[in-house]
Specification:
By secondary structure, chain A is an alpha/beta fold. Helix content of chain A is about 30%, strand content about 15%. Chain B is globular, with a radius of gyration of 16 Å. The chains are: A alpha/beta (about 400), B mainly beta (about 140). Chains A and B meet through strand 5, helix 5 and strand 6 of A and strand 1, strand 5, strand 6, strand 7 and strand 9 of B.
Chain lengths: ~400, ~140
């Protein structure tokens, strides 16, 4: 190991989630606080114990529903007195906020950090769906002009990450012979797991025929390759490893984190369009631990679009570069009772687009053995939680070993 | 371009990007280039990413390229071209890694392939103070 990973001085002591639904039409701050209080209580703490906050992406009005609450709203609503706080979007993806919290407790700036992410995209988009909200943060007509990165894609009618990720997938298909039948396994596996997750959005069984019957969105991605917008909040508590005496139950140990981005921070200028920023974040994570990819039993990895999970599988070294297609083929290997249980809650594809935090929540629940009907057989001891696609990526290696 | 130019969300023109979005007026696809070490810079920034020098100037490239990857976009996300249409990332031969997102036009959807040679064709938009010329690409040898 090249370094002394200070993230090992941090643990995850609690996790919580609000009601989750396609369209709940609830006050998003109410959902957010439900998740926060559930996590605080799960850790056996009270609001008086919380002395840090972290969130992603912070308050945002557009795209509609993308941010259910900012840090300030939550801090004030719960009257938290904090030694450290951060909220923002220019991070190693959604879980970058949690990784920051690990660093903060390791640095002694806080002891118990409330980390949260909430969305109400389902309600905000209404019946018009994603097209109504100009994914990617545009705006229609009225003299609107695109700036920043969006100027390089909006004029070409490519406002959606669906199209950007589709172009990564197409390049992967071209270089490695990956097929839609293989890609479909990410969606089919997610749906199968969602069937035993009472909070999942889509729980009805899905077949390969259903997948191929779905309308194309942006080739080679069809509707079932795209996650489902929803309403809900998720929270976790990151605590100092020195404070375990405060806690209700044995925490999940943070073994290592990955945050690197060596490629260009861009959706279309990244050097290798068959992989993503996950390549760099995952590689860095493995330099910070003696645990090996083959030791991992549980992988909760981002599926905002199905191909992103394929990229993470390769980035994590669960298979070789370009080999994610054959790796997932048939679906047995990534099933809940397979060698690498993948997205055991149904992912964002079927359980809902809780945007990154859902994967960490599920990893912790599984490592605590609290997943009920969807609990991975044999009670896994080592798992990864990974989030982000394109130029965004952050990941954590977690264990319940003492 | 022809009469039936679709609605497009246009870029906000600034001193930094004007060369790129208006070069089509002279039929030129232009990128900033470091006058000291020859590096093309895209998207444009005030300094060369290789030598960090400020000696940059816009230069025309050949306008030829190859399709690096693409997607046939079927979903109507916004007012604009009628789906399905092709969004592509095109490699330019002038420098390894010099590329841009664009549309492939004047080509049957099913004929688009990775590695296909293409050439720039500009779509003019006359809203606002100065015309904007979007660089689209068509198969080499086709007539628009």
């Amino acid at each position: 190991m090249a370094v002394d990973p200070i993230e090992r001085r941090s643990v995850i002591s609690g996790a919580g989630q609000s009601d989750v639904g396609r369209r709940l039409f609830r006050d998003p701050l109410d959902l957010t606080l439900d998740a926060c209080m559930a996590a605080i209580e799960d850790a056996g703490l009270t609001t008086r114990d919380i002395d840090g906050i972290a969130t992603y992406p912070g308050p945002m009005d557009t795209p509609p529903g993308f941010s259910g609450a900012g840090l300030v709203e939550v801090q004030d609503a719960l009257r938290l007195e904090v030694g450290w706080y951060t909220g923002g979007i220019e991070l190693p993806a959604q879980l970058g906020s949690v990784i920051d919290a690990c660093m903060a407790v390791a640095a002694g700036l806080a002891t118990h950090v409330l980390c949260f992410r909430s969305v109400y995209e389902g309600s905000a988009q209404g019946k018009e769906g994603r097209s109504a909200v100009m994914p990617g943060g545009g705006g229609g007509g009225g003299g609107f002009r695109a700036g920043g990165f969006m100027q390089w894609v909006l004029p070409f009618a490519a406002p959606s990450a669906a199209t950007w990720i589709a172009m990564f997938a197409e390049r992967h298909f071209h270089e490695f012979g990956t097929t839609r039948e293989q890609l479909a396994q990410i969606a089919l596996n997610a749906r199968k797991n969602a069937g035993v997750n009472p909070k999942a959005i889509y729980r009805d069984p899905m077949t390969m025929d259903d997948y191929f019957d779905a309308r194309m969105i942006s080739s080679p991605l069809c509707l079932f390759d795209c996650d489902v917008p929803c309403d809900g909040g998720t929270a976790v508590i990151v605590s100092s490893a020195d404070a375990v005496a405060d806690l209700r139950k044995p925490p999940v140990q943070v073994e290592a984190v990955g945050t690197a981005l060596y490629g260009r921070p861009s959706w279309d200028q990244f050097d290798d369009l068959t992989t993503m920023a996950c390549r760099d974040a995952a590689a860095q994570m493995w330099t910070r631990t003696d645990i090996k990819p083959s030791d991992v039993q549980l992988a909760e990895m981002y599926d905002g679009f199905s191909f992103i999970t394929m990229a993470w599988l390769e980035a994590m070294g669960f298979c070789g570069k370009g080999e994610s297609g054959p790796y997932v083929e048939g679906g047995q290997r990534i099933a809940r009772d397979g060698e690498l249980a993948l997205n055991t809650h149904g992912g964002q594809l079927s359980a809902g687009r809780l945007h990154g935090y859902g994967f960490l929540h599920e990893a912790c629940v599984q490592l605590w053995g609290e997943a009920g009907e969807r609990q991975v057989p044999g009670d896994p001891e080592i798992g990864v939680a990974a989030a982000g696609g394109g130029p965004l990526a952050g990941c954590l290696l977690l264990t319940n070993r003492r | 371009m022809s009469d039936d130019v679709p609605f497009r969300i246009l870029p906000r023109i600034s001193d930094r990007n004007r060369h790129f979005w208006t070069g089509g007026a002279e039929g030129e696809l232009r990128f900033l280039r470091c006058q000291d070490d020859g590096t093309y810079v895209h998207p444009p920034t005030p300094r060369c990413p290789k030598c960090q020098g400020k000696n940059l100037a816009a230069e025309a490239v050949s306008g030829r390229g190859t399709v690096h990857t693409f997607s046939i976009n079927v979903q109507q996300w916004m007012p604009g071209p009628e789906p399905p249409y092709v969004v592509a990332i095109v490699d330019l031969p002038e420098q390894e890694g010099l590329r841009l997102t664009t549309n492939i036009v004047n080509c049957p959807l099913d004929d688009v392939r990775i590695g296909m040679p293409v050439q720039v064709v500009f779509e003019r938009h006359d809203e606002g103070d100065e015309s904007v010329y979007l660089p689209l690409f068509e198969p080499v040898g086709e007539v628009s």
